[in-house]
Inverse folding.
């Protein structure tokens, strides 16, 4: 019995250790081009190394290329930050490094940009290079040519040129403002969407149902509906959602305002100073109305912030 238990513990430990070792390891920095996935030809690797060295000699910017077969289930954003930190790309105090990562098995790529170059290579420009240079080549199976052209596009931007497609994207937008949603996987969009729409959706419902402060919430939530959905559905999708909100909220508010319970709640607020709606107690004050669950205790929600280790853009093909 003891031997059986011991064997079971050993097997469990091995499985557990294997689970923690799934994530991709960070390779040693062996040069400006580290081709662990073996998708770059020797000639291209030599040419890339030469051009990257010349660019660094002229600008002190450090650009590195890393190919790895698989990320082992880790997100490419997290892995890129870890590699960037381990390799310490860019000059100390300038933070002028850029890392191009390609994981062909996962069909993921990312341009990670150091803090010092975010002004020259903002996320939108890195996204242009991914969409217009890297993605078409990778879809065609030409990793070698795609990486070569992608690195050249990065160098061109850092030396004062424009990314391929940058002019056409600006022309399509009709102005110099080019705001785009980040490249996220379907799972990430679902998670971000659940959080964002859960928060602003809750306050929208409260605004519709609440006498007194409802119209204040209507105007208060307009900038939130204008900007937050961009993370999930992009600029065009956010514009449609904003238009829907601006039109639908007043209609819903008017329809709800005709109901008997809403009329009663409004009357109770004005005469008694409080009303109950759907199990929640609504009380009035000099500044408007407030919601509570009716219990003696209350809870609050707050969050903190952090840094990603550098800007950039990700993509898939």
């Amino acid at each position: 019995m003891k031997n059986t238990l011991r064997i079971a513990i050993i097997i469990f430990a091995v499985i557990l250790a294997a689970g923690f070792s799934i994530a991709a390891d960070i390779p040693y920095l062996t040069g400006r081009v580290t081709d662990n996935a073996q998708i770059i030809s020797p000639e291209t690797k030599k040419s890339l190394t030469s051009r990257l060295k010349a660019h660094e000699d002229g600008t002190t910017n450090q650009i590195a290329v890393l190919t790895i077969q698989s990320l082992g289930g880790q997100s490419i954003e997290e892995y890129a930050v870890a590699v960037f930190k381990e390799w310490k790309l860019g000059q100390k105090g300038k933070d002028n490094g850029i890392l191009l990562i390609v994981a062909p098995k996962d069909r993921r790529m990312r341009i990670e940009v150091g803090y010092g170059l975010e002004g020259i290579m903002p996320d939108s420009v890195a996204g242009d290079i991914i969409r217009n240079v890297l993605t078409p080549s990778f879809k065609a199976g030409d990793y070698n040519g795609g990486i070569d052209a992608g690195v050249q596009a990065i160098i061109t931007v850092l030396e004062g040129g424009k990314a391929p497609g940058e002019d056409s994207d600006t022309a399509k937008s009709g102005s110099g403002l080019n705001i785009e949603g980040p490249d996220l996987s379907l799972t990430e969009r679902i998670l971000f969407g659940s959080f964002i729409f859960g928060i602003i959706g809750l306050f929208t419902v409260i605004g519709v149902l609440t006498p007194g402060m409802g119209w204040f919430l209507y105007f208060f939530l307009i900038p939130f509906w204008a900007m937050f959905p961009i993370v999930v559905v992009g600029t065009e999708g956010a514009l449609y959602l904003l238009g829907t909100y601006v039109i639908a909220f007043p209609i819903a508010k008017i329809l709800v305002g005709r109901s008997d319970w809403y009329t009663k709640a409004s009357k109770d607020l004005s005469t008694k100073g409080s009303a109950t709606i759907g199990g929640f107690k609504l009380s009035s004050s000099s500044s408007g109305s407030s919601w509570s669950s009716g219990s003696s205790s209350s809870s609050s929600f707050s969050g903190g912030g952090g840094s990603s280790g550098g800007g950039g853009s990700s993509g898939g093909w």
Notes: The chain has a mean pLDDT of 78.
